[in-house]
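Let's do one together. I've listed all components of the complex below, 784 residues spread over three lines.
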Amino acid sequence: MLCLENISKSYTQKEKVLKNINLCLPKNASLALVGESGSGKSTLARLILGLEKADSGNISIEGKKLKEWKKKNKGGMSVVFQDYTSSINPRFLIKDILQEALWQEKKRLNETELKELLSQVELSAKVLKSYPHELSGGQLQRICIARSLVLKPRLLILDEALSSLDVSTQAQVVALLKRLQEEYKMSYLFISHDLESASAVCDEIAVLYEGQIVEKFSTCKLKDTKHFYTKKLLDSIMPIRK
Amino acid sequence: MSFLSVKDLRIINKYTKEILVDSVNFDMKLGSVLGVIGESGSGKSLTCKAILGLLSPNLGYSGSIRIEGEEILGADEESLRKIRLKKLSAVFQDAMNAFDPICTIGSQMVESFQESMRYKEAKNLSKEWLEKVGLKESERVFQSYPHELSGGMLQRVMIALALARKTPLIIADEPTSALDVISQKEIIKLFQTFTDSEKCLIFVSHDLGVTSHLAKNLLVMKKGKVVEQGVCKEIFDAPKHEYTNYLITKRQELSKRFLECFA
Amino acid sequence: MNFWKKLLKDRIALASLGIILGVIFLGIFAPYIAPHDPLAVNLSHKFAPWGSEYPLGSDYLGRCVLSRLLYGIRTTIFFALLAMFITVSIGVVLGILAGFFHKAEGVILRFCDIMLSFPSELLMLAVVGMLGAGIVNIIIAHVVAKSAWYIRMIYSYSISYQKKPYILFSKTCGNSSFTIIRKHLLPILFADIVMLATLDAGGVILSISGLSFLGLGVQPPTPEWGMMLSEAKNVMSIAPMEMFPPGFMILIVVAAFNFLGDSLRDILDPQYYSSKAKI
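Okay, and this is what the predicted structure of the assembly comes out as:
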């Protein structure tokens, strides 16, 4: 589905934020990219989305180069950001926010389709007439997810999408994401600093440390990891202590 | 005799008449760690602000909050200042915005101590505590501006400030929520190391996992009301209220796969 | 609380808005309200005291001061608003272009740098000096002198809004820059533009009046507040009261715009109200 070859990026002369990244995400799979703040995870997301250009290397989706693929596959890729309050224009009603993906094509979703979309993310049609500031964090993030599903993307990038939510809400959104992946047959790139939520959503995990992928393994092989940074991440997790 | 005593605390919005916190009752003795858990909007932060005497003027309140017998609610600014100086410290969630961006960390730390000591003493005290909270290059941190340090480092500076003042009551309102997991673990360790029989700590969080590693007693809040309170271990082993059970279940759902694959 | 509710609660803003709208209303209906023809010369009645025939007295040519003041609204305020409208439009178009399109950014910003290195009053005088006196040339001078400032302000706003995740999402959807500008940016900028314009309106009125005072603007006998002040200064020793009507009106209207602009800035700032009203 998605292939990154030798991707490098730097913002200043001194330091490279990403150094020779090589990564592949197969179709219908879920890959978590885990690393601390400042490790370059969000930069990688922006490169894949085409919002910024890499200094060197290739990004290809479904065998084609990123730019070409984007032109022919509008809406084939979508994103959910961390900060749900600034991910939505505060002046729009929810029902207008959900239409955004269709603006360019000058189409609109009708009432039934909107209700159907909201039920996919377990929200009632009541929220259509609300403004963003009237909804809770969990509800807003679900709206962001619903909005990204409109054009039926094949690749969904979740850039720390759970990090700002309450832990109990996180659990609900994780269940939602797993269900949607089955239904929409999407590939997920789940970016996070937390191995716990990453392992809850994804089957493969890649660890990003100081701009490089230092380890990649499948979730069930968590205990066999070798790199010191991965071990540090594992050690930092604090489930309920009985 | 309890150090902090909160009785029938009620906070309402004067204009909308909405009840934000209702009938909160708890006591704390020195040496205890109280975890306050609940989702966003449950009133946890408001309760902390009430104890610190920092409620906004549009909020009305009733009940009593006593620190060593002295009443906080409704006290005048001068008495509050004296209580805060000797007995209260706070660590807030958003360390990145808690510091003045145009002053160095050092000058802000020294400013907090200069009520009771000279500059040189204050500087030495600051550097000593910066080292104790794990910021080994204390001189460099002392001279830095807030934007030059990461979120984790700034949070440690806030904790250093709170601990260095040696106040008996420390209120930490979601101190690790804005940090990545590695920094979070280190901050929790710091709290574990420095809470002793001379201090009491109120630790507010929405994460039960983190709280369970630190708190001895627990206060579970939902929509402004306390739904369950008691000894942390007992509550986790056998929660009495369905909401507590819900929070525990959801937290365990999140850890499930991790524990399956890791154990 | 939405915008209008907040505005209604702010008494100073309400009063300023009332004054501005009242003055505009008087200007529009000047022919029906003014007691005399503003241009009617009546030398036998020059320097008439304030009374029932000449409510604010008459000037050195016997013309009714109140009538000249009312007709002067049309010249001073309406032309000021016209000048501001043209300047703001240029500012918005070029500012957004510079913010969104990297290639245009360099050219537009360098142009602004050059224009902003001249003191604006000097630039206005130079333009009027080259083109000659007259109200049209004052408007052109104002546009030339002030556009750069608006372009810069709108540019900085559009750059800051561009970093917001909802704009990034829009780009990911494949929406063109024009769609994003039209649907997201312009509605948000509108609030900022209104605030900037109201804060600046006072300055525009003062510029036009100032240039007219110097004899470079409106030509006699057209009534205009700045020119009325200039004429009053000539007769200051004989009839000192002549200065007050036009001077007072300029003061009131400019102050009203300034207070309104101030209040609008506070109302439109989400953090100001959240610190005052929220938990």
